[in-house]
Amino acid sequence: xxxxxxxxxxxxxxxxxxxxxxxxxxxxxxxxxxxxxxxxxxxxxxxxxxxxxxxxxxxxxxxxxxxxxxxxxxxxxxxxxxxxxxxxxxxxxxxxxxxxxxxxxxxxxxxxxxxxxxxxxxxxxxxxxxxxxxxxxxxxxxxxxxxxxxxxxxxxxxxxxxxxxxxxxxxxxxxxxxxxxxxxxxxxxxxxxxxxxxxxxxxxxxxxxxxxxxxxxxxxxxxxxxxxxxxxxxxxxxxxxxxxxxxxxxxxxxxxxxxxxxxxxxxxxxxxxxxxxxxxxxxxxxxxxxxxxxxxxxxxxxxxxxxxxxxxxxxxxxxx
Amino acid sequence: xxxxxxxxxxxxxxxxxxxxxxxxxxxxxxxxxxxxxxxxxxxxxxxxxxxxxxxxxxxxxxxxxxxxxxxxxxxxxxxxxxxxxxxxxxxxxxxxxxxxxxxxxxxxxxxxxxxxxxxxxxxxxxxxxxxxxxxxxxxxxxxxxxxxxxxxxxxxxxxxxxxxxxxxxxxxxxxxxxxxxxxxxxxxxxxxxxxxxxxxxxxxxxxxxxxxxxxxxxxxxxxxxxxxxxxxxxxxxxxxxxxxxxxxxxxxxxxxxxxxxxxxxxxxxxxxxxxxxxxxxxxxxxxxxxxxxxxxxxxxxxxxxxxxxxxxxxxxxxxxxxxxxxxxxxxxxxxxxxxxxx
Lengths: 320, 342
Prior knowledge:
The structure holds 2 protein chains of 2 kinds.
Chain A: H1 2-29, H2 35-40, H3 46-56, H4 62-76, H5 89-124, H6 129-143, H7 146-157, H8 180-213, H9 217-224, H10 229-257, H11 261-267, H12 272-281, H13 285-313
Helix pairs in contact in A: 1-13, 5-6, 5-8, 5-10, 6-8, 7-8, 7-11, 8-10, 9-10, 10-13, 11-12, 12-13
Chain B: E1 8-19, E2 22-34, E3 39-43, H1 50-57, E4 66-74, E5 77-78, H2 84-90, E6 95-98, H3 102-105, H4 112-121, H5 128-141, H6 147-150, H7 160-172, E7 178-182, H8 190-207, E8 210-215, H9 218-222, E9 227-232, E10 235-241, H10 242-247, H11 252-259, E11 310-312, E12 315-320, H12 326-341
Parallel strand pairs in B: 3-8, 3-9, 6-7, 7-8
Antiparallel strand pairs in B: 1-2, 1-4, 4-5, 9-10, 10-12, 11-12
């Protein structure tokens, strides 16, 4: 097990290096993205642009630039400075992390609290009215793009522009340490929007798994033992059906911790996703690199955690 | 000596499934009795209804799609008339069941000891520790070596034979009066099969329970069963004490089953004789005797008339559903067995 984890961590490092290299190359392949021009502002003189190019090291060969960047990342955990604001990318990401974590955790609670009961009940009462209604609703929720859902939610429910103004709308976010009540109120609508798609997906996934599991021989055994049906479903059925879902769940949490770009942007929540969006819009390479590496880091770590957790959830799995 | 009231009396049990293609008559009117401490072997090909009939007794047939009728009298009650909660109290307590594939029948994620203890606590108001002690006792009884350590292990860590022993221990943990074993040795190695059958036989005597063994292999029940019921297309075509099934079988299908058992004492070069044809689809059974299309002795009228289960003349314990005349059957069987003995 320890050897397995060490090997996985080694691969994690290789993977992150690859991700950073690919981001670097893609950025330079984009024709419109000369950061020096963007940095120089409107109608800048060619001299100024050249000056900026030299200062940012943009005239160096690509390999040299990459090497310089990675050296700082590895040795000093320094992701460089934003071309746009001059702010430290690391500081920028760290300061936006609480908002992203708030988004992720709140949405996670909502989506699990809804997906679990819906998935279980529709699997057990298959083909019932409840099953049909929730599964159709889930299909709609999965199909709806989250930015569209977010805009519709604001249009319908936001306190400033909504038809039925019952939730705080965009631009209302404050940190949890500043005002917990306002923090909660401002995030409720984003949470619901972000959770909708996940909840629907997990409900359908759990239903499909559970339907399959309930046909297994060991469920028949549990019934043959004379266990109450509720125990058969939860302790024997759900226990087995939920295990593969943990894999997907871990990865989704990893992805969301890297920043939910669309939801944060629509609601203007100052999280990592919003930062990434701004960085892309302004071709701010260090910020893009920072957020991409940061997101990739969460995903590979989530992957590792999931694989280790699986060994505990499924006793048949042993890593050598 | 008058016969005591039977432990289990199945009367005209029918299990029909409504499907989009029509009604599947999986079990189509079977009747039998089983006394305490006795062993009944139910023999038949896949799809003959032998498993479904037992699942119906256990109340484990999915009730939404199935229509179940008849009577299943057990200890004076009709199990088919019990409400779900009363039936749950019977399952795993008074009637227990083991299945064909012990690996898929044990939960992969729960410890062996927990799965047994859970069966105890489903029916007894005892502490966790007491339930675990009982579980350990049973694992030792069925001959699991190092049972204390196995309690904390998982099913996949055990061999096939040990898994089936665990299943048996779990089934017997509440000392049921009836054990239903559905193909208990089919998934096991031949050497292990005999061990499991011996174990079931020994525990039957020790605990004084009745046993129903379901199998497709007459050889399996030859030494274990007291009585054998041969099923074909959802019906019992022949039922008799075990010795009579082997010495004086009455139904052509039973003859076919007997001819398809490999024998060590058979002359070298003698071939196994398969039964020609395939079992009929239970959707829209043919008119008349269901075996007639495969029966070498079928006469035109056998395709028209439904055979009824009737006692063999002079032997009330031997019941057969065959349209051939008794005297004719005896001549045919005598002719069949002669070359074998030559």
